[in-house]
Design goal:
Order of helices and strands of chain B: HEEHHHHHHH
CATH topology of chain B: Arp2/3 complex 21 kDa subunit ARPC3
Largest sheet of chain B: 2 strands, antiparallel
Number of strands of chain B: 2
Number of helices of chain A: 10
Oligomer: heterodimer
Strand content of chain B: under 5%
Structural class of chain B: mainly alpha
CATH architecture of chain B: Orthogonal Bundle
Number of strands of chain A: 2
Radius of gyration of chain B: 16 Å
Structural class of chain A: mainly alpha
Chain lengths: 260, 180
């Protein structure tokens, strides 16, 4: 199956680390990154750079993976520098707002935090395939059976969705092209017409999905599908190097908390 | 008629499919001046109205998990766990809770009309944006007014368009789901 998303297939220590270790590390790091101080952010940045180099992923590739959030971050940065009260640094004469020193500091600090958060998560998804992360999630969500949520079912649903996304995408494209061939142009119509077109274009898509779901249910029932624990071709096993990397991340987290 | 409770497998498959649909919605960009919007919350609302509370919420759980495992399905092509913990993660939690709220309101009435459906979706949207803005204000340490300025105001017109279309679509497709 082709991969959509960020995964880059390379042969590296980071790629072969157990997905559970990577997932928990990113989760734990995410929490402490939001708590730590400027020194901690610097340490995190250095740590991420080191493991990026170890994973044979070019730092630029990692950096560019955050491109979608740049516009939002830019707006957020402007909000910080213009609306934080404090020492005035520069005023733009025609408008009554000014850049403050505190705002500049707060903006840079907060955005570096969010940025590191994204880089850590990107590194996880660039070095771990969808199937591996799904398996890790399935393992880690197992305790949820106390509240009667089956992690096997959750993993199955994610796998099914993964399977059907390319299909639905193609279907959507066909509907779109069929409409375009009949002269439908979403771009040039008013709001009311847009709503009408939206209903007309999404009706076949949703109808197809309902039909497909029914077929899938029938097929699964006909084959005697039973929800419940399943076995895997490749079971996840923790080895020695996984324990070493967990220990390393734990040390980093303690250091970050110390620097908070 | 099959109810959502009578067949767990059916509700699982529907949730999975509508999760995929919501993810697809993030790729569909509708041109609008001044900022174009995506159809992702449109399908969140549809999942709530057509699947009901539990399956609707599960479909959004699938959507969020798809994003967490690295598919570029969050707003603007974002992906990954970082988004969930970042300033805009509240919206993702909001989709799950919002779809549940929409579903429960729809389940309360057997044959919901256009206005009732629209109101249910509106309630869901209020939940989504409240949770979204709360996390934005909390994580980015913004004052509530500023958070609303960044996190709610730009989306009012696109949401109104999606809300009307979702309500109309629901009324058209009502009764088709969970039936053979």
């Amino acid at each position: 199956m082709h991969e959509i998303g960020q995964y880059i297939d390379r042969d590296s220590p980071l790629h072969s680390t157990d997905p559970r270790v990577k997932l928990i590390s990113v989760l734990a790091l995410s929490v402490v990154i939001l708590k730590t101080g400027p020194g901690g952010l610097l340490v995190t940045a250095l740590f991420l750079l080191t493991i990026t180099l170890c994973s044979k992923i070019r730092p630029l590739e990692l950096f560019l993976s955050t491109r979608p959030v740049w516009p939002f971050f830019a707006i957020l940065f402007l909000v910080y520098i213009f609306t934080t009260p404090g020492t005035q640094l520069a005023a733009i004469p025609p408008i009554p707002i000014a850049i403050s020193r505190e705002g500049l500091y707060l903006g840079t600090f907060q955005l570096s935090r969010f940025f590191l958060l994204l880089l850590a998560a990107s590194l996880l998804t660039m070095t771990t395939s969808h199937i591996e992360i799904t398996m890790a999630l399935e393992h880690l969500l197992r305790p949820l059976k106390i509240v009667r949520i089956s992690s096997h079912n959750a993993a199955l649903m994610v796998s099914m969705a993964l399977r059907f996304i390319p299909l639905l995408q193609r279907e959507m494209l066909q509907i779109h092209q069929a409409a375009a061939a009949r002269g439908v142009a979403m771009k040039y119509v008013g709001v009311q017409e847009k709503i009408r077109l939206l209903v007309y274009l999404s009706t076949p898509l949703v109808m197809n999905i309902i039909r497909r779901s029914d077929e899938l249910v029938q097929a699964m029932e006909a084959r005697g599908y039973q929800p419940g624990p399943r076995t895997y071709l490749n079971e996840l096993v923790l080895n020695k190097s996984d324990f070493y990397s967990s220990g390393l991340v734990l040390l980093l987290i303690l250091l970050l908390l110390f620097l908070a | 008629m099959y109810s959502s409770k009578s067949s767990p497998l059916r509700s699982m498959v529907y949730s999975s499919m509508f999760g995929a649909l919501t993810a697809i919605g993030a790729f569909i960009v509708i041109p609008l001046q001044p900022i174009p919007f995506t159809l992702q919350t449109f399908f969140t609302a549809i999942a709530g109205t057509l699947l009901g509370g539990y399956a609707g919420a599960m479909s959004q759980v699938v959507y969020v998990l798809l994003g967490c495992i690295g598919l570029p399905v969050f707003a603007g092509g974002k992906a990954g766990l970082g988004v969930l913990f970042g300033p805009t993660g509240g919206y993702l939690i909001g989709f799950i809770v919002g779809a549940y709220v929409i579903g429960r309101i729809m389940e309360a009435r057997k044959q919901a009309g256009l206005m009732y459906t629209a109101m249910a979706i509106l309630a869901g949207n209020v939940v989504i944006y409240t949770l979204g803005t709360l996390q934005l204000a909390f994580i980015a340490q913004l004052a509530p007014v500023k958070a609303i300025l960044v996190g709610v105001l730009p989306f009012i017109i696109p949401e109104a368009i999606k809300l009307s279309a979702a309500a109309m679509l629901t009324v058209r497709l009502r009764g088709r789901i969970m039936t053979k």
